[in-house]
Amino acid sequence: MDQLGAMRAFIRVVQSGSFSAAAREQNTTQATISKKVAALESQLGAKLLTRSSRENSMTEVGAVYYESCVAIIGELDEAEAQVRSQQASPKGVLRVAAPIVFGCQFIAPFLSHFLECYPEIKVDLMLSDKHVDLIAEGVDVAIRAKQLEDSSLIARHLFDNPMVVVASPDYLKRFGEPKEPQELRSHNCIVYSMLKSVNIWHFEQAKESDDKISVPVSGNCRCDNGEAILQLALDGLGVVQLPIWMVDEHVKVGRLKVLLSNYIAKPLPFNAIYPQSRYVPLKARCFIDYLKQRLAESPNYR
């Protein structure tokens, strides 16, 4: 039995969700992929997948074995690339996870150019504001607007995500404009529910000062998607705190107004996250380098 080939087949069945999808990727038949996984299970003496007509799910031992397979195959692929040449052409499927708005507004528009630069890479772009388990989902690179909390991962800083507080002219006409952060307590604040400190907004004075201000906020709506929060602000529902690159266009044409200009909202660090391993896959390094370069060229990300 080709154990490495069987391990690769098992990994792709898990990541793609089915034997047929894995077979299409490898230009073979579903029966061939099924035989490889069955042979692997026979050699291990353990059931890795529970099969049904609707889906395939990993068994408990299968989940443990899957994580080991991903690590082994990843290091093997990169070791081979290192031996062939330091200038080896990056290739293979690159699985990238990113927040929905950031992925749509920044990654997607430049993806065609990235693929032109690296024609042997295929990108599987996964957009979700939910937390993604990189190992379980087979993700090579995840973009996250938060501090790294998992010691099994590595973070490469991309930029500090500048935040601003905004509201629509209609809302401000009805409820007045806050001049100090503490006045936000009396306003309807729409919060992003995926943050660790959902109902606390942090500020510093725009002029040089060590004073830090934390304000508990509340409102009649919370949401786990930035684009939806932006729309609620445009509709005049309340005050929101969002990245400047999300609202800049609307501010320029007067649909939103920046509030508390004498204060700086605490920025969120944007990082490229990837699993710890002896070698970082060349395809992942190329993507992170490309992304960091494009961000450096955009004034809203500096």
Automatic annotation (TrEMBL):
Record flagged with keyword Ion transport: no
EC assignment: 4.2.1.1
SUPFAM superfamilies: Periplasmic binding protein-like II, Winged helix' DNA-binding domain
GO molecular function: carbonate dehydratase activity; DNA binding; DNA-binding transcription factor activity
Pfam families with a match to the protein in the record: HTH_1, LysR_substrate
Coiled-coil boundaries: none
Keyword annotations of the record: DNA-binding, Lyase, Transcription, Transcription regulation
Residue span, HTH lysR-type domain: 1-59
Keyword match Transcription regulation: yes
Top EC group: lyase
Transmembrane stretches, start-end: none
Source superkingdom: Bacteria
Family, similarity comment: Belongs to the LysR transcriptional regulatory family.
Name by which UniProt lists this protein: Transcriptional regulator, LysR family
Species of origin: Shewanella halifaxensis (strain HAW-EB4)
Organism ancestry: Bacteria, Pseudomonadati, Pseudomonadota, Gammaproteobacteria, Alteromonadales
